[in-house]
Specification:
Elements (H helix, E strand, L loop, with lengths): L6 E7 L3 H17 L3 E8 L3 H11 L3 E3 L13 E4 L6 H10 L3 E4 L7 H16 L4 E3 L7 H11 L6 E9 L16 H4 L3 H17 L3 E9 L4 E3 L5 E3 L5 E8 L4 E7 L8 E8 L2 E6 L5 E6 L10 E4 L21 H18 L10 H20 L3 E2 L5
Parallel strand pairs: 1-2, 1-4, 2-3, 4-5, 5-6, 7-12
Antiparallel strand pairs: 7-13, 8-11, 8-17, 9-10, 11-12, 13-14, 14-15, 15-16
Helix pairs in contact: 1-8, 3-4, 4-9, 7-9
The structure holds nicotinamide-adenine-dinucleotide.
Length: 386
């Protein structure tokens, strides 16, 4: 692999919400972590004027409307695919086959067939030393790292129940314009794929458990919407998704997601109840973790609020500020991209801390099973999809 020491060339496809988030993080990585040095080479989009403006703003050497130019550019080591879901497979597979370390945004793929093709390409490029990652960024929230540690060290005992609620009100307003996110052919799904994909990955990451069967329910509340030009389109994605996910050990998790949860913005709440204790995480208070232990004296038992900001005790905090100086949403993307670059330059595995394309496939299987379950009104065994 032709890396130039700690310098890693970046090619970014997309300059929307996520292209902007990743670009801003790459600009700060060397400053914050002092190891890998990302070199922002090319950013790609579909509109020449906009992509040139994005290149200037984020300090890329160039902007292009031809993302394919990245494939044979020797200055580019890492390709980041932040396009809508319908181009996750084709662009990521092309990048992997061109010998680029590849990051793709979530949801991993449009469907299970695409996800399997992406994993085949990832396995082949992995044998040549190229890394892959799915941007499940919540794996890099210090408080959620603490939750994983508490679970794996037995602090809450045997898990009885796992509950996740990822909700917002982005679609409550009937006049909010139609976008690619409401078209199943471009997005692959709605609340199920956009929000619950994160929650599915969190369930696997925090507990180490694999889902064996699911029962799913999906709902679209507003059947059609006008785009910004006034053209009316049918809404073909779900606006709410509820999953009962049975684990291999027979336990059931509930994962609820909604884009019409009036009054909520981007609320991710996870509650885990075990034989010895409990954990609550709420993204609105993302620097904190609530922990309950039955080992505490009865008189003072109750959820305690831990500020997961102790530099010597909590993941990533040594790179930031003294205790109690909180981090924000973009910091977990920074941590994720730092981890990826460290794995690239030091030839270390992305897993278990980062989500690989294999994790993307596991998540996509559950999404596919939920869609089948909703259509058939039956439990679906994941084994039937393999
Ligand atoms: N990890 C997270 O927290 C998170 C948050 C939001 C979105 N996402 C994911 O990121 C992806 C993008 O979402 P977004 O909100 O940034 O979308 P967006 O609409 O804001 O941006 C999409 C970008 O992709 C570009 N694009 C589309 N097709 C292209 C092509 N063929 N060639 C070059 N550029 C192309 C567009 O020009 C645009 O710049 C989605 O998969 C979404 O689910 C992840």
């Amino acid at each position: 692999l032709l890396l130039r020491g700690k310098n890693v060339g970046i090619g970014m496809i997309g300059h929307g919400f996520m292209g902007r988030a990743h670009s801003m993080c790459f600009n700060r990585i060397a400053e914050v972590f002092g190891s890998a040095v990302p070199e922002l080479v090319t950013i790609a989009g579909r509109d020449g004027e906009k992509v040139r403006a994005a290149a200037t703003r984020h300090r890329y050497i160039q902007g292009t409307t031809q993302w394919e130019e990245m494939l044979d550019d020797p200055r580019i080591d890492v390709v980041v695919n932040t396009t809508p879901t319908c181009s996750h497979a084709a662009l990521s597979i092309a990048a992997l086959r061109a010998g680029k370390h590849t990051i793709v945004e979530k949801p991993f793929a449009l469907n299970l067939a695409e996800a399997k093709d992406m994993v085949t390409a990832a396995r082949e490029s992995g044998q040549k030393g190229f890394k892959n990652l799915v941007a499940f960024n919540y794996r890099f929230v210090p408080a959620l790292r603490l939750a994983r540690q508490l679970i794996s060290t037995g602090a809450i005992g045997e898990i009885y129940q796992y509950r996740s609620v990822y909700i917002g009100d982005r679609h409550t307003d009937r006049s909010s314009p139609y976008t690619w996110r409401m078209d199943v052919a471009q997005a692959g799904g709605g609340a199920l794929t956009d929000l619950n994909s994160h929650a599915i990955d969190m369930l696997r990451f925090l507990t180490g458990q694999e889902v064996s069967s699911v029962l799913g329910w999906l709902k679209t509340f507003i059947a059609e919407r006008a785009d910004e030009q006034g053209t009316v389109h049918p809404v073909t994605i779900d606006e709410a998704a509820v999953i009962l996910a049975q684990w291999d050990n027979g336990k059931v998790a509930t994962l609820e997601a909604s884009r019409v949860a009036t009054g909520y913005k981007n609320s991710l709440r996870i509650e885990i109840h075990g034989s010895e204790g409990g954990i609550i995480f709420d993204l609105a208070r993302g620097n904190e973790l609530q922990f309950f232990s039955r080992k505490d004296p009865l008189a003072v038992q109750g959820f305690r609020t831990i500020s997961a900001t102790e530099p010597s005790a909590h993941d990533f905090l040594k790179y930031w500020w003294p205790r109690g100086h909180n981090l924000g949403w973009e910091h977990n993307h920074l941590h994720m991209l730092h981890h990826f670059l460290e794995c690239v330059i030091n030839e270390m595995p992305i897993e278990p801390w980062g989500a690989t394309f294999e994790d993307g496939l596991r998540c996509q299987e559950i999404i596919e099973a939920v869609k089948i379950s909703h259509a058939t009104k039956c439990w679906v065994e994941l084994a039937t999809l393999r």
